Amino acid sequence: MKQPRQITYTAIIRMFLLINFSVIMAFCSDKKTGEEPPPAIGGYNVYMGHLHNHTRISDGTGTPIEAFEYARDMALMDFLGITDHAEKISPEEWQELGDAADLFSEDENFIAFRGFEWSSSSSYGHVSIIETTDFVRSDSPETDTFEELCAWL
To answer: Cβ(80)–Cβ(93) under 8 Å?
Structure first.
């Protein structure tokens, strides 16, 4: 199993509006851990992970728990975000995804992000939304344009 890498999850990174973005650069810590620090570029530590992943909730395979477990224990990632298609997520599945993210997030070791993919059928494309308390669908009259999605955020 991978050793902890001094990742600290802060309120500053609670919400992301991302379009297929897969790398987080976090501020360097002054903590002395005795371990080799993660790679640094321009005063920032570099962490490996991926923010746009699907599970059986929409068009992927496996459960959120299986995805987080694989990312942490087998792929040795520092973080993983699950962003299933919002149009396929039920309120119960949203809760399941949040519970799994809470279970796997551990400061200084691994961060699990809950999110959803807002997928427009017109010219807006696909947008991954990370770490909100609720989700919206692109087929809802209140959030069927990118401007309405931004206002919801």
So the answer is: no
Helix-then-strand count for the chain, H and E: 3, 8
Which three-class secondary structure state does DSSP give residue 117?
strand
Res. 61: pLDDT tops 90: yes
Report which of 116, 108, 118 is spatially closest to residue 138, judged by C-alpha positions: 118
Dihedral sign from CA coordinates of 51, 17, 21, 85: positive
Rounded Cα–Cα distance for residues 105 and 109 (Å): 8
Q: What span, in angstroms and rounded, lies between the C-alpha atoms of 17 and 35? A: 33
* Per-position DSSP letters for 48-72, written without gaps between them: -EES----TTTTS-S-HHHHHHIII
**Closest by CA position to 97, among listed 77, 126, 117:** 117
| 8 Å CB contact between 117 and 126 | yes
Q: Which two tokens stand for residue 111?
A: 């961060």
Q: What is the SS3 assignment for 83?
A: strand
- Strand pairing category for 44-47 and 16-18: unpaired
pLDDT-based confidence at 97, cuts 50/70/90?
very high
**pTM summary value:** 0.75
Whether 127 contacts 133, CB under 8 Å? no
